[in-house]
Design brief:
Layout: H1 2-73
Length: 74
């Protein structure tokens, strides 16, 4: 009877360790997802900023173009 109890206890401890390992892996995975979402949001913000800056430069160049042409004609 004692041997059966020891085996049951060992099996239970093993199962609890496996559950704990799975929980730890799940938490690490969730943290990795959160980190990647943060990184993605930052990358999207940088890309948006770069697009706006490029649009501003193109708009300025476009606005300067008629002035240059009128100066060249004079």
């Amino acid at each position: 009877m004692a041997i059966a109890q020891e085996r049951a206890t060992a099996t239970e401890q093993r199962a609890l360790r496996e559950i704990d390992q799975e929980r730890t892996l799940h938490q690490k995975g969730e943290q990795a997802v959160a980190d990647l979402r943060t990184e993605l949001a930052a990358s999207q913000a940088r890309a948006q900023d770069a697009a706006v800056a490029g649009a501003e430069v193109r708009a300025r160049l476009q606005a300067d173009r008629p002035q240059r042409q009128s100066c060249a004609a004079a």
